Amino acid sequence: MRFPPRARAGSAIVSAILSVGLLALRAQAPRADAEFLRTAYDTYRSMERSSPYRALSWSFVGPTNVSGRSTDTAVATKNGQRRIYAAYATGGVWKSDDNGATWQAIFEHMASTSIGDVAVAPSNPDVVWIGTGESNIFRASMPGVGVYKSTDAGRTWQHMGLTDTQTIARIVVHPTNPDIVYVAASGHEWTDNETRGVFKTIDGGRTWTKSLYRSPRTGAIDLVMDPSEPNTLYAAMWERIRRKWSDPRVEPGYDESGIFKTTDAGKTWTPLAGGLPPAQFRGRIGLDVAPSNPKVVYAFIDNYEEGRGVQSGERDAYGRAITNGRIKAAEIYRTDNAGATWQKTSPTSNFMIEHSGTYGWVFGQIRVDPVDENTIYTMGLNLNVSHDRGKTFTSLRQPHGDNHGLWIDPANPKVLYNNNDGGFYISEDAGQNWRFAEAAHATQFYNVALDMAAPFHAYGSIQDVGSRRGTIDVGKGRDVFDAVAFENAPGGEGSNHAIDPANPNIVYTHQFYGNFTRTDLSQAGARGGTRGGAATNIQPKDPDAELRAQWMAPFFISPHDSTVVYAGYQFLFRSGNRGDSWDKISPDLTSNNPTERLPRNSSAIPYETIVAIAESPLKKGLLYVGSDDGQLHATIDNGKEWTDLTGHLPARKWISRVVASAHAEGTVYVTQRGREDDDFAPYIYKSTDYGKTFTSIAANIPAGSINVIREDPANATVLFAGTDFGVYVSTNGGAKWEVLGENLPSVQVSDLQYHPRDKVIVISTYGRGMFILDATRIR
Question: What pTM, to 2 d.p., does this model score?
Fold first, then answer.
């Protein structure tokens, strides 16, 4: 058996014809944009209702002790009773009517459950607005599909347009007229678009006008209203884009970020600049007006002017050495004359430079105390308070970091509701003590891996929490599974896990960017630490090249020999002794285009890296490798010779999964995602000839992204796919798909595993924890 030669003229012509054909087909297809996604969700719900598997029930299995990133809070008071609305980055909106003791999900079956903002009409507590699409734009952020409105306190919702905004930073409702609403839209995460800026409706959302607009790359990231004059508003505009190789930072030529003011309800806007940093240095900006003195407005600016040189041994949040100088970063500006002039009130100090770590673009929130114009709170790595207008700060005692929202009780400023990467927290003593909203299950899992212990464990890494594992006991019954607390496990927040099938105590994982470790849980101290106390560093080294690895680099255990493991950088590494030593068995398997990568230590994200590895369970040494820039390669001889299969797939799409069939040696499945291009079409491909040709089996799946595909280990015709809406099953090899289960929230299914012994399916979701389903009832 041989693959076709890599560089033959005839092959090049055929590949060119295939590529032209793919481009032509894609040109004819409708654009898979946010409106496509929203409409596709209606199709998904229809498929869910008619599915032959609608009676099968997904059971939430945890974690009961971990939540996820919370983005905003709104509070409604009616007849003396308070309702709290807590918004989550990818977990929808939850409500509590008992001061956070219990919570109920009220926005979990929508086309997007990524929430940028939630707002209640001050004049009518039954009117609630939700802006979908988190504006903090992490690499794993999910897109929104516009704004929704409820007129019955969250019981029902109606889509009210602005679909193509994709991220919404703020919603401001007029104090006396609930039909007048302003929306700050920050726009697409990955691409330029026109639907960004400040929008206004005067008819409750039936129609919208674009009130403030600068360009397709500059959106509104904050918006505040003068509490004494509702026709006066301040908007923060932010020029930014996320690139596949960089966070959304200030780039050369950017000069459109700034603060704007209207005094005529958005008809005209005036730029405010007196005393602020030069436009070319302005990053994200947060705003707030002092309720006790509306002439006082604060601005929290991420300033890109050089602040200081690098300190010896200084590293970023992911442990990478910093060699470039540090920017001034977090700065506080104040106006006492409603924006006519501004004065910097914060010092240039290490505290402010390090206030938001090396990623100030993800923070930028500021709040003013309701009764004291000199007391302000800023949100960064910590929640900080200043009682002297920003001259000095104290970091409040907190159970979790990375802060994105704060609500201060206007009647009692000691009551604080805080939104951070750990969830929603309440303090009733000005931040000295906090209470966790434990019942709001919004955990952001990146993945799931199962071991073969009895009962087995489900491992996963959680955004800004670390790696955890939960015990799944199938012996208690196959219809109802207990939701459990998850314990600490080896690995970090962005880690893949691979567990030795012959010894469940051997766990492979890593701490960002390919820092692989092997942990023996049977050794003393291994379970106690968050990262595993008995970990051995097994990171490969290459004396000839600087290695590039994705934040969540792939690791794979051979199905033929559990001592043989593979690790993916831009090269594929193989070890025959559990990682004690390594061999590089491939050339660079990415596009390797330096113009699409930033130099190291210049705020770069590793790009053009391997993200998917598979070895055929039927043929040892038959390997497939996929990359984040859409490259696919295969070898039949453990890396002696590689064949490029890329030309048979849509170009430049992230390879989200490669699965080599356990039923037919030449069969391989490949899924791609277009999220990094703001493309939400479904991409699933199958080859029965070792990747020489591929056929789309997306069939009737209405939208992507497709995050994972798996085979039933006992039946070659049964396939499972996890998408940004839910789980699909096909019983005819992908010719037709059905929605699997009816009660799953519409949230990204980030990974799916089929336990071969216990015959259950476990999924991880990026926003609602883990769920389990009895697979024996599918066939």
Answer: 0.94
What sign results for the dihedral spanned by CA atoms 545, 546, 552, 555? positive
What whole-number percentage of the chain has pLDDT above 70? 94
Amino acid letter, 415: V
The CA–CA distances, whole Å, from 734 to 37, 344, 597, 699, 774 equal 21, 61, 36, 7, 21
Strand ranges for 226-320 from DSSP E: 233-239, 258-262, 270-272, 282-289, 297-308
The chain-wide mean pLDDT, for the chain, equals 93
User: Is the bond into 122 cis (omega within 30 degrees of 0)?
Assistant: no
Structural domain contains residue 292: no
DSSP line for 117-164 = EEEEETTEEEEEEEEES-TT--TT------EEEESSTTSS-EE-S-GG
115 vs 131: CA distance, rounded Å: 6
Query: Is the distance from CB of 659 to CB of 713 less than 8 angstroms?
Result: no
User: What is d(CA 154, CA 121) in angstroms, rounded to the nearest whole number?
Assistant: 12
Alpha-carbon distances of 253 from 191, 193, 250, 280, rounded to whole Å: 17, 18, 9, 7
How many angstroms from the chain centroid is the CA of residue 671?
A: 19
Do residues 687 and 671 touch, judged by C-beta distance below 8 A? no
Q: Is residue 473 part of a domain?
A: yes
Number of domains in the chain: 2
Residues 189, 240: contact at Cβ < 8 Å?
no
The CATH number of the domain holding residue 554 is 2.130.10.10
Asked if residue 692 is part of any domain, the answer here is: yes
Dist. CA 130–CA 177, nearest whole Å = 17
Beta-ladder partners of 384: 378, 395
Cβ neighbours of 325 (radius 10 Å): 10
The edge-to-edge listing of strands for the beta sheet with 535-537 is 498-499, 506-510, 516-520, 535-537
Q: Residue 598: what pLDDT?
A: 67
Q: For 320-352, write each residue's pLDDT tens digit.
A: 788 788 999 999 999 999 999 999 999 999 999
Residue 525 has a CB neighbour count (10 Å cut-off) of 10
Residue 43 is assigned to a structural domain of this protein: yes
Q: Is 336 left (phi over 0), alpha (psi -120 to 50) or beta?
A: alpha
Boundaries of domain holding 551: 9-54+443-597+608-777
Give per-residue pLDDT as tens, 701-734: 999 999 999 999 999 999 999 999 999 999 999 9
